[in-house]
Amino acid sequence: MAQRIGRDSGGVFIIAATPFTDRGEIDHDSLRRLVDFYAGHGVTGLTILGMMGEANKMTPEERRAVVDTVIDRAAGLPVIVGVSDAGMRNLTDLAGHAMDRGAAGVMVAPAAGPAREDRIEGYFHAVAQALGPDVPMVFQDFPLATGLPVSAALIRRLSSELPQMMMLKHEDWPGLSKITALRADEETPGTPRLSILVGNGGLYLPQELQRGADGAMTGFAYPEALVQTVALHRAGQVDAAEDFFDRYLPILRHEQQPGFGLAVRKHVLMRRGAIASAATRAPGPRLSATDIAEVERLMARLETRLAA
């Protein structure tokens, strides 16, 4: 069984895509191959059923099946499971299944509703109570997707009041100052440390690492870029980490287009042999012939740049 996440967890927890067949069925063979692909590129762990994993298009039974396939294939590599759901019962059922199967923790985003911090605070207390004290939690802070901005002060308060809230998935944009504020809080005696992994495809990863982030929890079709950037930074080679990461920026930027970017990521994963089909589940984006030619050109330019 994999080790559970803690307040010092770091590295790269790659956000895993969910492979589908051209008919829209979950492709479990490709899912196993994808786990091997990520593990082969040195990721610290996996995060499944996130927003880019198309979990909102799956039935409860399909989500459980994905959990089973990934955890079985990961063979001890830590797996965090996104369990966000409009219904508390659905959330806790999936979280219970994931933890029983050996998940390292669960990820929860604020529930849809008015953008009031008292409501968000109450929600996370309710989630923590429903899950129990032994389920490590990741707070997914992604205001661009949820429409719910959350202050550093509230995140710190929840982290201090809820012992099981171990980690922040930081995806505020712009949000570098939020990382600085959270790390400054920890200089106060008695303030518990919070693991911070960053998202947004890693667009700002070098700067976020310099602000005190512990690594990345995001998706990118070139996971080795994230892994090596974090490794260089940890080794104290800050400029080398940024120079290395910069080589991947053109295709990473292209992959970060809202909505459309998922189709780009899946196409690249398919071309790299990680999955059999680039299909997204309907309703989802599809690449035109022009789009594909564009992506292929970016891939070729990256290969040339890396070879040089």
Automatic annotation (TrEMBL):
MF term (GO), any: 4-hydroxy-tetrahydrodipicolinate synthase activity
A single Gene Ontology CC annotation of this entry is: cytosol
Keywords on record: Lyase
The UniProt entry, under SUPFAM superfamilies, shows:
Aldolase (SSF51569)
Q: InterPro entries recorded for this chain?
A: Aldolase_TIM, DapA-like
Q: Which residues bind pyruvate per the record?
A: M217
**Record keyword Electron transport present:** no
Q: Does the keyword Metal-binding apply?
A: no
| Family statement | Belongs to the DapA family.
Q: Which PANTHER family match?
A: 4-HYDROXY-2-OXOGLUTARATE ALDOLASE, MITOCHONDRIAL, DIHYDRODIPICOLINATE SYNTHASE
For this entry, the protein name equals Dihydrodipicolinate synthetase
